[in-house]
Design a protein that fits this description.
With 377 residues, the protein is of the alpha/beta class. The chain has one domain: Metallo-beta-lactamase, Chain A, CATH 3.60.15.10. It contains 11 helices and 13 strands. The strands form 2 sheets. Strands 1-2-3-4-5-6-7 form a 7-stranded mixed sheet, with no helix packed on it. The chain has a 6-stranded mixed sheet with strand order 8-9-10-11-12-13, with helices on one face. A hairpin with a 4-residue loop joins strand 8 and strand 9. The longest helix is centred in the middle third of the chain and has 20 residues. It is globular and about 60 Å long. The structure holds zinc ion. The site of zinc ion has 7 residues, from loops.
Amino acid sequence: MLGGLCVKSFAAFNNGPIGLRSLAAPRPFQLVDQQPGRRSCGENRPRVIPTLASWDPGENEMRRTFGRRNAAAIAAGGVLASLVRSNRARAAVAADMAEPAPGLFVRVGVTEDATAANIDAIANIGFVVGREAVAVIDPGGSLADGLALRAAVLARTSLPIRYVIVTHIHPDHILGSPAFVQDKPVFIGHAALPGAIAERGAFYQTNMHTLLGDDGGAAVMPDRLVATTDTIDLGGRVLELRAHGPAHSGSDLTVMDRATSTLWAADLLFETRVPSLDGSVRGWLRELTALEATQAARVIPGHGPASMPWPDGVADVRRYLQTLAGDVRKVLDSGGELEDAVSVAAQTERGRWQLFDDYNPHNIAHAVHELEWENPL
Ligand SMILES: [Zn+2]
């Protein structure tokens, strides 16, 4: 166990002591196995825990839609099929939302790993309301989380949810997608997202189903892909979408709301919770530099507060990544290997971040795997 608070079976999800199979960041989920003197995963419950009760978009519509969009996921896990069959009468309680800019709403995720108690509501997710339509930015970490977000939208506007923007592959951002299928939105993602879903979607779905049952959710294949930049118009409110190279993940998308000068950076920016690396440490540093040139009044981080003045937060993430890369390079340059790096890399950052020991070893493994190829030894 890698300092793994609440980790019941680290290896089971990561293919070894420091798995290179998933390196999912945040990890797909962790099961509660509380030990004396250790943090309780469920002690900080989310402010709103939806009591789900309605998954009722119409059975036939669900079959048709999922058949088209997510046949692979159904075949792989059968979870969506059971959702379709269940057709239970449920009602989600609307998530608490902050409104850091007019018409732009953020549900702040808890700084925990996914548990049944927090329904994987651990990422910052939300939506933007224009004159004619709504765009959801990240549908949530589970079906339950997505339904709570959808209820929050419906509590504020009767405008249609025309777009669901998925900022990247990670489960805490994508698995709420099925909650919105009934709205028939255009699902938008990075051009690399379909490949990432094909590779990991069933894995994430199965694990979240183990944690939450039918409320676990699934990834939905995007209808519209962004390879460089794109725009969508919500009616007098244009959102600019930007696809990034491998950084936090391999499918990072950011969103600029020009109307309020708000940059939705998603997981390119972490605050409080230690950044998790699943793309490229060098690439992430490059993307941060490029992103810093963006003019914005505020930023929405993927984890941390509802918003921060821009570019606050960049310096912390950059320092962490530079320290991580620098320390790993030193180990590699001196002939060391992964096990040598794990005990030393980025240790000076320990006191600055929460969940540090849950993620830093993953980040080190990823950085070693990436940076060893630039080392001639
Ligand atoms: Zn992420």
